[in-house]
């Protein structure tokens, strides 16, 4: 199992990752940063996300999970020291118990409704701030990096 299991997401200010489960995301501004950070590592996504991905994911081992996949077993089969959980809300929830880090980039939108970051009920956690990364060429958009402290 990787020692770093990192959730990476772009969210609205009200905590949504998409307007609906089939949305092809065009409002995020952090794709170059996402690409740089995930390059060379396995990325895990749910089948809805796979169906909405419009961009290239070359250079990364893409693991698409179905409901029949056990998250622990999926992670156990990864030999790399780091992997990324890249969405969507259902998949973030299912892998939440195993996360070590969260990289989250709030975007200047309020959707009011949609797919939340975690679409299932999860346990609470505390986060420890680690780093703030400016999203290149974007004014006022930053990625917050946290370690998860399970309570
Ligand atoms: N803003 C961002 O950073 C970001 C990142 C990633 C994705 N997104 C967006 O998020 C949206 C998709 O999110 P999502 O939450 O709908 O889907 P998702 O997590 O991408 O895919 C759904 C996953 O949940 C599984 N599942 C469905 N029903 C289940 C059940 N009852 N029990 C256990 N597992 C179940 C599915 O398996 P089956 O294949 O077996 O159904 C699939 O693995 C898209 O619009 C995408 O563009 C946004």
Question: What's the gist of this structure?
Answer:
This protein has 151 residues and is α/β, with parallel strands linked by helices.
Describe the structure.
This protein is an alpha/beta fold. The chain has a single domain, classed as Dihydrofolate Reductase, subunit A (3-Layer(aba) Sandwich), CATH 3.40.430.10. It is built from 4 helices and 9 strands. It has helices spanning 31-38, 47-52, 71-76, 89-95; strands at 4-12, 16-18, 43-46, 62-65, 82-85, 101-107, 115-116, 125-134, 142-150. It has a 7-stranded mixed β-sheet with strand order 4-3-5-1-6-9-8. A two-stranded antiparallel sheet has the order 2-7. Helix 2 links the parallel strand 3 (43-46) and strand 4 (62-65). 28% of the residues are buried. The model has no long low-confidence stretch (mean pLDDT 96). Bound molecules: NADP nicotinamide-adenine-dinucleotide phosphate. NADP nicotinamide-adenine-dinucleotide phosphate binds at residues 9-10, 17-18, 21-23, 25, 28, 45-49, 52, 65-67, 86-91, 115, 119.
